[in-house]
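Lab notebook, design round three. We kept the backbone fixed and only want residue identities now. Task for the bench partner: fill in a sequence for the structure below.
Input structure tokens:
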């Protein structure tokens, strides 16, 4: 899979980031919340990213 960094809220490795893949999908880097109360399959996960990151991606016409 080829991954391209689209947008981030900072330049170090542990910041919320959105990546595009050559599969036509997005990867999202963010915090793993533990207090959501949701149930989902073991092979899936959740990450939490700030709204600011989505707004920045939209403003920059990245998504």
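Proposed sequence:
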């Amino acid at each position: 899979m080829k991954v391209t960094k689209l947008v981030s809220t900072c330049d170090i490795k542990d910041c919320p980031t959105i990546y595009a893949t050559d599969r036509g999908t997005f990867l999202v880097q963010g915090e793993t919340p533990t207090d959501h109360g949701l149930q989902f399959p073991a092979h899936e996960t959740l990450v939490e990213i700030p709204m600011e990151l989505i707004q920045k991606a939209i403003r920059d016409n990245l998504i």
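Keep this in mind before ordering anything: The first strand starts at residue 3 and ends at 8.
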